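hey m, so remember when u said the tokens were messed up on ur end? i reran from scratch. heres the input so u can diff it against urs
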Amino acid sequence: MPNPRTYLATGIILKKTPFSEADLLINMFSREHGKLRGVAKGAQKSTSRMVGHFEPLTIVEISANKGRTLDNINQAQIINNLPHLKSNLSLISQGLYIAELLDGFGNESNANQHLYSVAVDTLVNLNTNPNQILNLRWFELNLLKSTGFGIELEACTSCNKEILPNHHRYSPSHGGLICLECNLPTQFSQPISLQALKVFRLIDRTHLLSLPYLNASDTLLREMKTLLGSTVRYWVDKEIRSNAFMERLEQLD
């Protein structure tokens, strides 16, 4: 009879931390159970079959036993090592940004399969198609949607009237667009260009793999990054440390 305390899980490694001389503490975001924390016994030993399986941003399948406070990871198999992503510092920084948001928005032992699929699709596309400039914007918008903080892009979040072109502002705290008649004090809303709104609507209704390659200006890209970034920070209620790392790398390019 199967042991009810033993389970399988497929997930993304978010972080690894030395737990003892030979063990690793693993944080992962799994398809079946949401965020998980477990100890991989002996994973730091050079003779362990699990050596190299728990690098951050690796997609793995694990076998584990339930523990009182931490689960015990007994076996691991790499599903996708994302080799191209891990060979490029800029792509690594984007992957770590995704991992930090999964850690911030994910729930312990509470599955969110849509969010898991969104994260895997984005990481795989960063690995195989890094020139898609909307990779992270697609992830952010769908992260918010998957966790109950989806952005309203068609109607005013205050009066529910349809938004007219160039007759709107954007409010992270209200969850999307707000018409000029209902406009909040300036510190609670910010301008959003018609171009940015059109791209957000495109992202909202299109899967990442079907998104076209846009010839967008740097100004438009910065605007979209700022708007979605402010929304993510509002709901996660903390600064995203990996974002500063990404910005430093962008300044070096």
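this time it looks ok to me. The chain has a mean pLDDT of 92. if urs says something different then somethings off w ur setup not the seq
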